[in-house]
Amino acid sequence: MIKTNTIFAGWKYLLTLVLLVGAHIAQANTVIYEDASLVSGNDETHIGYLNKSVNLNQAGTYQATLSDFDFPSSFDMLGLTVTSSTEKMGQIWNSGSFNFNADAGKYFLGLVYKTDETLNVGMYGIKLSYLDHPGANAVPLPSALWLMLTGMMAIAGYRRKMS
């Protein structure tokens, strides 16, 4: 005789797996720009800067990520700013990320850094990703949960009838 609790325990793990896989698919992103570089600062001030223009082909939500790889040493200062021709979309200091909404068009990535005075070298990483995916429609959770519960109750009823 199979206990109903055993059936529901198995379904609990399956439901968790379905939710995790669904969340991963819904949050998938496309990398628009990525760079990892070893740089040195000015000999006197140890400060440097870089500018890069990036064309965004579609409107939507984007994520900018900045990383200090601490190689060969960490930066004394590291900052990334994303701007359009008229406004600042967001800014990060040290390491981290931020999301911003943007229309299609040209945007600018501005990086400023100050290297360690002893080594005067550091390594950073920049990644710009597109987060929205119109082609990947997620199943509404309330409907999916309702159908899953109905199916679980039907299986439990069938098992009970069989025993």
UniProtKB/TrEMBL annotation:
Protein name (database record): PEP-CTERM protein-sorting domain-containing protein
Entry keywords, A to Z: Membrane, Transmembrane, Transmembrane helix
Ranges that cross the membrane: 138-158
Keyword Transmembrane included in the entry's annotation: yes
Source organism phylogeny: unclassified sequences, metagenomes, ecological metagenomes
